[in-house]
Amino acid sequence: MNDFDLFTATVKHYLAPIQSYLGDEGVTEVMVNKFDEIYIERDGQIIKTPAVFSDNEAYEAAVNNILQFTGKSVTDENPLIDSRLPDGSRVHVARPPCARKGTVMTIRKFNTTTLDLDWLIHLGTLTYEASEYLKIAIAAERNVLVAGGTSSGKTSLLNALSVYIPEGERVVVIEDSAELQLQQEHVVSMETKPPDRFGRGQVAIRELFRSSLRLRPDRIIIGEVRGGEALDMIQAMTSGHGGSMGTLHANNPHDALNRLETMALMSKVELPLAALRSQVSSAIDVIVQMSRHVGGRRMLTHVSEVEPLGDDGRYKLRDIFTVQPDPNDKKNVQLTWTGQRSTFAENLRPHERQLVTDRTKHIFELT
Predict the structure, then answer these.
(1) Domain ranges in the chain?
(2) CATH architecture of the domain covering 3-108
């Protein structure tokens, strides 16, 4: 038995009380508040389970075993840490003093089936019309930002969109904790490294991003933009790395641009606000907004193109798709074309124009 198989068997042993939920395809998240207080998310609903660890010592042993799989440990100096299970499921652990009532662990399950756009259409996440528009945006090397709240489906959508990156391109993926499942052949995956107990050896997203620029990428994908690396990403996008993608937390497309601006300012690089906003509006071409609705349904609510700054120096967006009431069901909503023409229609190259079908030719005004 090799080391990986040994770790897998050991983790399963320690997680026996919740193993049935980890193996249940209908469960997306397992949340352990205490050794005897365990919740799951199923079909968008949070449910308390009867599962319990035998005692707190058994629960702590399970947590420590999981962290050992990725060579990490929780210390008093570092009570918050990300890890993952052998199957790729994402784990976040919080311990006292940050977690006031004891160790908290959340497991975001790894989806063994990579969802493609057709399946997301089947789930009601988006429409055929919007999916074809996004395929063209990816092929045409537009820089795409996927925004949304926690558990809104950002990573699933980014995975699905990445399928349409042309074969032969070199893609560098940068993540805090590996989640993305890109289907391309030529992918370089990079993951952050936490500091040791003495605060040494940390490698953050920003350092990985700078390293990625020396790896000759055609496209760069950042799992989540959350700090000063935003400025490096913006500058890379405006200097030849078209077709790059990333996610961030935001409630709507305008908030996404404002958050990106705020995070770029965290880089501590002195840059006039007007110049920064100009770079942001030049770097990001398309914002795709994800939202989680009542009942757990995840869907696109906006697909918006970023236009040059307005005369007042503020961001301008052109909504291509927005959510509108369903004419056949007033209690429901659906993603609908706004009637706006795409701003990059006239810049499509011949092979990209061939991707335009009857479903999208009105958006690009091609006959």
Answers:
(1) 3-108, 117-364
(2) 2-Layer Sandwich (3.30)
Half-sphere exposure of 301 (CA within 13 A, CB side): 19
Same fold, 3-108 and 117-364: no
* Half-sphere exposure in the Cβ direction for 345 (13 Å, CA): 15
> What's the pLDDT tens digit per position in 253-286?
999 999 999 999 988 888 889 999 999 999 999 9
Rounded CA-CA distance 104/61 in Å is: 13
> Which residues, in sequence order, are CB contacts of 317 under 8 Å at separation 6+?
253, 254, 257, 287, 304, 305, 306, 307
Phi-psi region of 240 (alpha: psi -120 to 50; beta: other; left: phi over 0): left
- Rounded to whole angstroms, the Cα distance separating 334 from 327 reads 9
Q: What are 124-158's pLDDT values in tens digits? A: 889 999 999 999 999 999 999 999 988 888 988 99
Instruction: Give the pLDDT band of residue 242 (cuts 50, 70, 90).
Output: confident
Alpha-carbon separation of residue 35 from 61, 63, 98, 223 (angstroms): 11, 11, 17, 31
CATH class of 117-364: alpha beta
- Please give the Cα distance from 222 to 214 (Å, whole number): 16
CA pair distance 310, 119, nearest whole angstrom: 38
